[in-house]
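Possible regression after last week's pipeline update?

I re-ran a chain I had predicted before the update to compare outputs. Posting the input and the new output here so someone can diff against the archived version. Not blocking, just want to make sure nothing changed silently.
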Amino acid sequence: MQEYIGLFLEYLKSERNASPNTVQSYVLDLEDFVKYTEDAQNVDESLINEYLNNLHDRKFQVSSIRRKLSALRQFFKFLVAEEVIKKDPMTFIRQPKYRRALPKIVDEETVSKLIDATYSLNCDEQVRAELILYLLYGSGLRVSELISLKINSFVEDKFIRVVGKGRKERIIPMAHKVVELLNQINFSQTGSVWLFPSVHPEKHITRQRIFQILKYLAKISGVDVSKISPHVLRHAFATHILDHGADLLSVKKMLGHRDITTTEIYTHVSRARLKEVVKKFHPLAKEDNIRK
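New output (post-update):
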């Protein structure tokens, strides 16, 4: 089994252009399944169901179970294509259903507080921190996309060339403030190709460092630290521009979603907020009169 997993991972890297994070996720999920069998030839539907029951017994969330089953589905599909096995044991295995949770977001005032907090930092740190905020909240970047930006990722002072999941490239607009901040950075001093270089110029800043910077800004601005993260700012970007009239298809393209249904979750957030506004401010609104 380990040999086949190794071949599968090479396939993901070379033919599917999977990102290192995606490959690592497959590794963890497949290694968990290997505890049940070392022989790919003897895996059948009953063994998959036994494994599925074990995941439930170990209190895995539905989203985690779905991810693990998806990894197995891709793995055995690969083995069939390579003629390692004749029958795909995942053919009649159904994904458990789950209700997608509404994403956590922050309001526009909170984002303003974070931006204002950057001005308490020294000059270089202030520019970097503000640039991070404008790219996460102003363009909706994932943290992995943010840290991997290069100096030449900016096109005509209007767009950002982003390499997203599956190494797919997309071009998204950037806030004019980003241009102003970029002009304040002396890139010749860094000696690095990265927009946010690490202490070692040949490497970029880490995810953990981005989290640390955001948490620090939250702390000094009086914002609840537990509510701030790169992904929360990405969620806020999507929700706020929809609130201000952006169309769903444009938001989908900017976020780099494969499926429009993934983007539609932000319309539910907007509806939920509108419902709360009615409850809070309409003189005739009572909780038992507002339809759920």
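Follow-up from reviewer: compared with the archived run. The chain has a mean pLDDT of 87. Marking as no regression found.
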